[in-house]
Design goal:
Its cofactor is FMN. It comes from Glutamicibacter ectropisis. GO terms for molecular function: FMN binding; NADP binding; NADPH dehydrogenase activity. Keywords: Flavoprotein, FMN, NADP, Oxidoreductase. The chain is α/β, with parallel strands linked by helices. It has one domain: Aldolase class I (TIM Barrel), CATH 3.20.20.70. It contains 13 helices and 13 strands. Strand 3, helix 1 and strand 4 form a beta-alpha-beta unit. The chain starts with 9 loop residues before the first strand and ends with a helix. The relative contact order is 0.14. The mean pLDDT is 96. It binds ligand FNR. Ligand FNR binds next to strand 4 and helix 11.
């Protein structure tokens, strides 16, 4: 049997030249857990066991849930954060544990913008009839965005002043410094799914008339500024990544050609890991089905230099499907989300199915599966 490409090693380039080595090309994408019951952004033993089990499962790069760079940027009050030192201390044992099991660990830095201060997808809260924006009585907070639009069906956000934009850029940089101290190997900047950065990118939400709105150059300015600020403080031997919504799938929205152009600019600013998701602004109008977002990754991969690490995500559930995506050069790796929630051993099973070197934790291997 030919060797599996999915289970071949790969390196995400870093400024220092050393690169971040990955044991295979199967990545755990960020997935919000909404378990921070204390509402203080501090990760819990849930994050340790949940992400730790993914390291046991054979993932090569494990990316945390969306982790807010500022308290007002949380999607819900149960999100994790990196806006203070207590949070840094709580992330440390988690990053150490993941690395001790052979995986690299990334943090998805995020700001929800107009989509902040919501109840989240919590069954107990939904069952109580609470959806959408958190009410004032329940501790809802002021939200901020590029513009104040009604596109999200949430309470109106405050359009950010230039000063607020500049402060926000600094929030990203400070969170990046904390991510370093917390022991993360990679930052994934959350520029997807209709959250704050995407709210600046998409003309469907960004209606500004100053230097942060209008032209492509203006709508992408906030992102360029925060990436430059992160890059200035992020160690040269650590990797920088981004997640895009490659498409709004809506007329007049952010399109794939915009993503390709912006991905090249991000590469020039030092970003080397690219994950291609889609949508998040307005009602979903895109395609569905197995691997439906793979063409977005393929378009970005084709436009970038060879050494970029481009991953495809979305309804990739099967080992052979994943192998085919990388063998045919559509992407350099895959992100496996929901399938991993059901089966944290997804990579180990896939490795076995594809005839690759077995990667079970030795404790499980003794069980002679
Ligand atoms: C997600 N997703 C997501 N995406 C993101 O960029 N940041 C996040 O924090 C989350 N949170 C989240 C929570 C849960 C429970 C799910 C299921 C999904 C999207 C996720 O990373 C992925 O892109 C999608 O799930 C599609 O991939 P799969 O699940 O089809 O492999």
């Amino acid at each position: 049997m030919p060797q599996s490409k999915l289970f071949s090693e790969v390196t995400i380039p870093t400024k220092s030249g050393a690169g971040l080595q990955l044991r295979n090309r199967v990545v755990l994408p960020p997935m919000c857990q909404y378990v921070v019951a204390q509402r203080d952004g501090i990760p819990t033993t849930w994050q340790l066991t949940h992400l730790g089990s993914m390291a046991h499962g054979g993932f090569s790069l494990i990316i945390t849930e969306a982790t807010a760079v500022a308290p007002e940027g949380r999607i819900s009050d149960r999100d994790t954060g990196l806006w203070n030192e207590e949070q840094v201390e709580a992330w440390k044992p988690i990053t150490q544990y993941i690395r001790s099991h052979g995986a690299a660990v990334g943090v998805q830095l995020a700001h929800a913008g107009a989509k902040a201060s919501t109840y989240g997808w919590l069954e107990d809260i939904e069952a109580a009839g609470k959806v959408g924006s958190i009410s004032d009585e329940d501790g809802g907070w002021e939200t901020f965005s590029a513009s104040s639009t009604d596109i999200f069906g949430l309470k109106p956000a405050t359009a950010m002043s230039i000063e607020q934009i500049q402060k926000s850029v600094q929030d990203w940089a400070r969170a990046a410094q904390r991510a370093d101290v917390a022991g993360f190997d990679l930052i994934q900047i959350h520029a997807a799914h209709g959250y704050l950065i995407h709210q600046f990118l998409s003309p469907l939400n960004n209606q500004r008339t100053d230097e942060y709105g209008g032209s492509f150059e203006n709508r992408t300015r906030y992102l360029r500024e925060l990436v430059s600020a992160i890059s200035a403080v992020w160690p040269e031997d650590k990797a920088l990544g981004i997640r895009f919504s490659g498409e709004d799938w809506l007329e007049g929205g952010w399109r794939l050609e915009d993503t390709v152009k912006l991905a090249k600019e991000m590469y020039d600013l030092g970003v080397r890991a690219f994950d291609l998701s889609s949508a998040g602004i307005g009602a979903y109008a895109g395609p569905t089905g197995p691997g439906y977002q793979v063409p977005l990754a393929q378009a970005v991969k084709q436009a970038l230099p060879e050494d970029a690490f481009v991953t495809a995500v979305g309804a990739i559930t099967d080992a052979i499907q994943a192998e085919q995506i990388v063998v045919t050069g559509q992407a350099d790796g895959v992100s496996i989300g929901r399938a991993a929630l059901g089966n944290p051993q997804w990579p180990n099973h896939a490795a076995q199915q594809l005839g690759a070197k077995k990667a079970y934790p030795v404790q499980y291997w003794r069980g002679r599966w």
